[in-house]
Write a structure and sequence with these properties.
Blueprint: E1 2-8, E2 14-21, H1 24-29, E3 35-38, E4 41-51, E5 56-63
Parallel strand pairs: 1-5
Antiparallel strand pairs: 1-2, 3-4, 4-5
Length: 70
């Protein structure tokens, strides 16, 4: 399934940061994680939406600041 990551910026605007195919295992892992990394940056997951028209899963994230990587 195609997952589209949207970053909610401090101004309230949404910015597209990634769109790619995810396996069902990766999507299922969202039940157990609150954070993900993309392009070397860490984001907190906020909410998801299934867009039936575009057949994509849209995931809203916010950038994590001042956090040490695991």
């Amino acid at each position: 399934m195609t997952v589209h990551l949207l970053e909610k910026q401090s101004t309230g605007e949404l910015r597209s940061i990634d769109e790619r195919e995810w396996t069902m295992d990766m999507i299922a892992a969202l039940h157990h994680v609150n954070y993900l990394t993309v392009g070397g940056r860490e984001y907190e997951t906020v909410e998801g939406r299934l867009n039936v028209d575009s057949q994509t899963f849209e995931l809203l994230v916010v950038a994590v600041r001042n956090r040490n990587p695991i």
